[in-house]
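Sample entry (565 residues):
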Amino acid sequence: MLRAADDTFRLNADFFDYTIIALYFAVVIGIGVLARRQVSSSLDFFLSGRSLPAWVTGLAFISANLGAVEIMGMSANGAEFGVATFHYFWIGAVPAMLFLGIVMMPFYYGSGVRSVPEFMRRRFGTGAHLVNALSFSIAQLLIAGINLYLLATIVNRLLGWPLWVSLIVAALVVLSYITLGGLSAAIYNEVLQFFVIVAALTPLTIIALHKVGGWQGIKDKVQPGPEQLSSWPGTDLTGIDNPLLSTIGIVFGLGFVLSFGYWTTNFVEVQRAMASDSLSSARRAPIIGAFPKMFIPFIVIIPGMAAAIIIPEISNLKSGQGDSGGATYNDAILLLMRDLLPNGMLGIAIAGLLASFMAGMAANISAFNTVFSYDLWQQYVQKDKPDGYYTGVGRIATVAATVIAIGTAYFASNYDNLMNYLQTLFGFFNAPLFATFILGMFWKRMTATAGWTGLVSGTAAAVAVAFLSEDAFGGASTGVLSLSGQGASFAAAGAAFVVDIVVSVVVTSMTKPRDPKELEGLVYSLTPKESLVDPDEGSLPWYQSPTKLAGIGLVLVIILNLLFR
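Predicted structure, serialized as tokens:
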């Protein structure tokens, strides 16, 4: 059964709060209805007709990631691990986002593909394509369950409905606007949701800091001690006692394999940039998204740290003494809202949380329906059907995915800290894909057989490491390896990457490569450099230049890393 939430705390909203929430839902569904008028082809439904400006796709790019994990998961990490959680943003996100904009988006956008698995098919053939499309689809259904579970939790805390009822109601709201307007509805709502989320969490952060005595108050009162205020070596976060190995786990496991695997090959994010109106806009989208990404930790992680000090349930949970009231680290933000926000502000904060969870789930579902319709159904089941047929398939896939997500929410309910679960999934699905992708993009000799065998081997390696670790799969593991929590996820991702690379190299040496002429636009060394940039990019002002914006972003994130080391 889903973990019951009926006997835990409630959010004491009043009529004014409910009115704010109801208006927000009305606007969300209204955007879906308006976007429906723009859908005249499958390209409109799945990729917004490639017609959106960079600032829209850039904000949607970051908002699609600003879901349950970002809000609840990172605040839970902040409460449990402290400043080390900043690594997920400044080591584990921004550098990869800049790399995506500068190096990889020209291949995605310039090749005209409709999805990341379609790029894999052109580079490696149907074997790697089918493995990637299936693994991606499964991952999105599982991750959508995380967002849906937390969305339902908010409804449960607010109205006291049974959790299963809350799941169904929450799913129906997201389903309505994606089914109506496709990716355009999701993107326009994600832009709105970005501003709602920031407007909701900023006052909560300010009030929490005031309550605890500012940053100095956190430094004086944080438990268990100074290690919570230092980002390196992050031994609490990784669960690896050796400082050197912990640092390697963060830099290689999180900063390279998981980060680059997620941001550069995950179609949930890439799909937003691919909806841009030009190559230059597509390159700028993830770079524009990197700037707010740098500062989101201040309204997500710091409130979690404050909650561990001023919220009795979280403080007792962390110390292992006293009554936690059934609360988990995932409840840190909700408990802050309960104790610190007056009515009115509470309604805005609840709307912000609902916005974040809907943004995350909508991103998962809209990416799933595109891959299912184009890469699975059209490629392997029904080819050469009229365009409208695939739009219809996409809408049916949207409904089916939402129903399945209600089931996968069960898995999410078994984790006290959802980041453990999510990082495990990324190790399974994103890490091996990144290894195959990056090797195939820069090594023209790599063969089609190596593509799919590397993917399968890398995934198997990640599953093996996770199974042998202590706390993977919600505690149901053998504990052969002395790794726990997110450290196990970093190790699994590293194993997936290394095994994928080794298997790919070995298999390539034993199989026949493709004709280099077939790989133009798919391999870096075989692609004319002029096709990797927009023809008009040289005349753009500095604030529209992808390379200059990326340079500014890189300098800023280095400064932030130094300030909070």
